[in-house]
Amino acid sequence: MTNYGHYSPAQPVQSAPVYAAPVYAAPQQRDPADSVGSWMLTIFLLGLPLVGLIYLLVVAFGGSSSESKQNFARASLIWYLISIVLTIILFVVLAASGAAFFNWVVEFDTAQTPR
């Protein structure tokens, strides 16, 4: 004789989890593309020595330009800083080698001059 009516398992039976539909973020709205004329003006202004630097600073840290122009301005400023650092390093190396060469010439000349 079996007792099926009073079955109690050691662990409770777990039901399958209820499926929840994934929640997706709303699609981001893209900035409108800059016109060709806008980019031509940007490139023209960058060609002017002091005006270009001021324009880059305004576009990079101001809030009125498009995101693509802000990123372009920030990248350009980073390249400016890299070129300034490399120029300073090159100047120091050339100045040191020039001073060493000048000392070598003076020592060579004094060694060749009879007393």
Gist of the model:
The chain is mostly helical and 115 residues long. It has helices at residues 36-47, 49-61, 67-112.
Describe this structure in words.
- 62% of the residues lie in helices and 0% in strands.
- It has 115 residues and is mainly α.
- It has a domain at 36-112.
- Helix 1 (36-47) packs across helix 2 (49-61) and helix 2 crosses helix 3 (67-112).
- The longest helix is centred in the C-terminal third of the chain and has 46 residues, at 67-112.
- The protein starts with 35 loop residues before the first helix and ends with a helix.
- The model has no long low-confidence stretch (mean pLDDT 86).
Main attributes of the structure:
single chain, 115 residues, mainly alpha, 0% strand
- Low-pLDDT runs of 5+ residues are none
Radius of gyration: 36 Å
Query: What can be said about the biggest beta sheet?
Result: none
Structural class: mainly alpha
Average pLDDT reading: 86
Strand-and-helix sequence, N→C?
A: HHH
C-alpha geometry = elongated
Q: How far is the N terminus from the C terminus?
A: 132 Å
Number of E-type strands = 0
Separate helix tally: 3
Helix fraction, binned, reads: 55-70%
Strand content: under 5%
List the helices and strands and how they pair.
Elements: H1 36-47, H2 49-61, H3 67-112
